[in-house]
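Before the break, one more example. Copy the sequence into your notebook; we will annotate it together after we see the structure.
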Amino acid sequence: MTASMTVQLDQALDGAVRAVPPAWPLAATVAVNPFLGQGDRTLAQTAACLGRVAGIQVTLPRERYAAKVDSGQISDEDLLAALAAAPEASRPGSLTALKEALRRPGAPVTALPTIAELAAEESGIDWPGLIAERIGAWAAGFFDEGQALWAAPKERGAYSAWRAAATHDLTPEILGLKGFARHVAESPQRAEEAIARAVERLGLEEGALPTYLHALLMTMGGWSHLARQKLWQAELAGAQNSDARELLAIRLVWEEALFEFYDSRIAAEWSVVRNAHSTPLAPSSDQILDSILQEAAERAGQRQLAAILAAPEAKRSESRPALQAAFCIDVRSEVYRRALESVDPGIQTLGFAGFFGLATAHRRFASDVEERRLPVLLNPGVASVSGSQNLVEADLSARFAARAKRAWGRFKLAAVSSFAFVEAAGPIYAVRLIRDSLGLKPAVADKDPAPRLDPALGLEQQIGAAEAILRAMSLTRDFAPLILIAGHGAKVVNNPHASALHCGACGGYSGEVNARLLALLLNNSQVRTGLKEKGIEVPDDTLFLAALHDTTGDTVRLYSKDVPSAARKAALRRAEAWLESAAKIARGERALRLPRAAGAGDITRRSRDWSETRPEWALAGCKAFIAAPRSRTLGKGLAGRAFLHDYIWKDDKDFGVLELIMTAPVVVASWISLQYYGSTVAPETFGGGNKLLHNVIGGIGVVEGNGGNLRPGLPWQSVHDGEKFAHEPLRLSVYIEAPREAMTDILRNHPGVRDLFDKGWLTLFAMGENGAVAWRYREGLTWDAVETTAQLEPTPQAA
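Here is what the structure looks like once it is written out:
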């Protein structure tokens, strides 16, 4: 292979790897945009790409849009606006033509076949299924993170480790692929050389490489997503990781072996496939039509929300608030915040990303595991540990107890003891089994001592951090005597995806560590003195107190022992009463959405029920991000479907906070929104499968059944209630009250973020002084005025 061809192959490999989204392990799962690698394409162009490589349809079935049109949820105005916004030349020529096309079924989407699929069609042997099973069996051991009793060797890299195992695997030969073990043994020892040889033997030219290599990665499901995550983490740390490329080498060795075995019988078909991969991507008329219908559905949702935002604002008390509570912008907080504010007019709430500006690498009590409690877009800025220096001996004792517990667990699972253990100790577990079956086990609160920064920051750094966080929270004046910093998490049982219910801004962990650290920082008298010099005067009687919002049971725990104060007991009792009253209101609202929920009292029980597949809806239904003063949304029912970030642009002198919002929380929210979107429109590829069939593999993910591909994304039960979808797949609409010139400048300086808006993955609106939607961003750093009258049109269905 010539030097220029080597460069071309390297570029194609890099592009294919980056076209696959990352997936984080179960211990700290975060939502990921499954279209992350398609950010420079429109929805229709993405449909063309993913249709070719994986047979994916990236929009709803057409009859779903037809039903929305028939019900009036999508109006003619929505259809016309979507039609006018479509840039593709082959769009329908009129509203009548669009409606006629809506009634016609679309052509089925079929991926270009791999060699394994051509060989399967020729031989009648399920080679794709066998490859998925064999690669999955090997990858489960190689990527294992502590579940396996015997870990697979990893020192030599993925390709070398697989090659050593595959030379002794007779399964392919038993099923008919004679000489496979020898073929693997004779393959190049280095992954790069194996890829180059396979590409040359398969006759792949430069134009065919990008989508063909992408297609091979898609056939490996979540394993390729996991390998992509390894590269993501490595690059954040300034390093590299080759696991994804080595997975491609493994898959190419399989393709090469099958091609050599079936060459004469599939050569003609393979030539057609190669040529098709060399054809430039272009969306079909069906894909263009479906993208227009999706745009129309989103405009309908935007019209509904615009009407809510244009409604008169609720009056806010002018006196000093009795309580302020800062919650994560997570959509689940919207329901609880609204409930809490309704309890007493002296209560104000705020919204801010749930890591509260403290990007910490945290070590829990009696643990060596570094928990990155921060958005996965960032590197840790500080480190923290639970417990003071005085707890060193207790920490060591707890470690010994944990090791004994792990050893006992492994003994119970070991081949020589498992049957004897069940025979002898089984009856002892009868009470536990009955208790768990009836959901009687009480929720266990986190008992970690208060965290501290380790190493500690200097005073100037502390003051700088406190100032930056308070300004980003738009909390620089009118402080209440009691201010809660409320992180969030979820207490559930028997749920492999439990971390997906925690705080995405905290890297898939609960948010109490960040909340406690921030409260400690803001209660520091020296820090407050420094803040006063910077124009932020926190009253002496103001106390910051950390809290944790359990989103499954809608309870709030106060960490009052972090700052013991006898003088505050009455105030804390009053706050706890308010919080409990709000919890009852929030549980009542949430019970209306949850299947089989008997009412507010049933919500907490569901979190303790090991058989409950839907303990909560998490972020299902999310469709909007609003950055504005709380007064713009106060008292307006957003049904737990909006991310709410407090922002007052007039206090943001150089628009640094606005830039932070648009480049971090907005992007994270888009990942969440698009993960729910992908898990709904393409569950077979981007969804997590059926919870009832899940088996945890390697402590990193789940498979359906006893092996095969790892399943990334959300389980089916997270987006569907058994009869209908609980999530309406709409790309996120972003509403910001700020001068559009400032937002334009930020988009100009951040082309990656601009792509999200220019290509339609996000829609940006500028809100006016009264909170009503005034401007809509259009591709190319331009804006269109929004008609006020259109905002106030009634709609047949509530938001």
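The two ends are 58 Å apart (CA to CA). The first helix runs from residue 3 to 18. Try to locate both features in your own notes.
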